[in-house]
């Protein structure tokens, strides 16, 4: 995806994959970072704790990972496909 | 891992931006986190040195280079300096391009130079108390009333919500007949009826001010573009 960004030719699926994949990875990496530090990693004075809480918003804002999955699924399954979660509640 | 591929200019930009962060942002960060908001002065400093918005054309004060790798450098360096809550990308790359993509040249000329200089700070209001990821469910409406528009509704989780001078607000313009007819409106600081809520306390990004605005009724905002493409409102 990054290669595509640099060539300026990313499609909808690529954007969705990039947004969801990168942000999930960020949260996962920060999670491992906290775990690695043990109790210290849970303390405010250790920057990793902040990096973890800062990271968590990224899978939510600007189109959550779930919305990215809808975008990817539409691209894979065609425009007619109606995901179950787009029904009107 | 893909090879990292930056031009010489971008490498120099990285060095300069790293120096900027360590001089102007990092020393104040703890104070800003406690205050829950970044000082407006930081935006002005960044704008002064050309770090705030790189991509706008030179006529608007930018460098006229919309290569995303400049923003990549900015994001990477902010992460490296652990100042994720200095979230300048929201201003420059999330909200800024709405002007050039959907706005008229007149609107770009009027608003962009101030944004590039960091004098007016941008925010976007999409999320509502009852509509988050499901944007089609938003309830804010905009109706034309003579020579101006009247916005009605409430928005929440507006990043930069306290600092913002210009808020791009999404609203439905034909809620009865076409639920997909959405228009973006430019709402400026001080417009009548546009009330900001308190600065919301969050799990992370402590220095990033996030606010709600409740019961917004705002006169004479400038529409940018109708998403439905039924009407081009960018005049």
Structure, described:
- The complex is a heterodimer of chains A (89) and B (235).
- By secondary structure, chain A is mainly alpha-helical.
- In chain A, 62% of the residues lie in helices and 0% in strands.
- Chain A has 4 helices and no strands.
- In chain A, helix 2 runs antiparallel to helix 3 and helix 2 packs antiparallel against helix 4.
- The longest helix of chain A has 26 residues.
- Chain A is elongated.
- Chain B has 6 helices and 7 strands; from the N terminus they run ααααααβββββββ.
- Chain B has a 4-stranded mixed β-sheet with strand order 1-4-5-7.
- Chain B is globular.
- With 235 residues, chain B is of the alpha+beta class.
- In chain B, helix 1 crosses helix 3.
- The C terminus of chain B is likely disordered.
Concise account of the structure shown:
The complex is a heterodimer of chains A (89) and B (235). With 89 residues, chain A is an all-alpha fold.
Strand content of chain A: under 5%
Order of helices and strands of chain B: HHHHHHEEEEEEE
Beginning-to-end CA distance, first to last residue of chain A: 34 Å
DSSP helix fraction of chain A: 55-70%
Percentage of residues in helical conformation of chain B: 25-40%
Overall body shape of chain B: globular
Q: Give the biggest sheet of chain A.
A: none
Largest sheet of chain B: 4 strands, mixed
Radius of gyration of chain B: 18 Å
Averaging pLDDT over every residue of chain B, what do you get?
Answer: 87
List low-pLDDT spans of chain A.
Answer: none
- Largest interface, per-chain counts? A-B, 19 and 16 residues
Strand order of the largest sheet of chain B: 1-4-5-7
Structural class of chain A: mainly alpha
Radius of gyration of chain A, whole Å: 17 Å
Average per-residue pLDDT of chain A, rounded, comes to 86
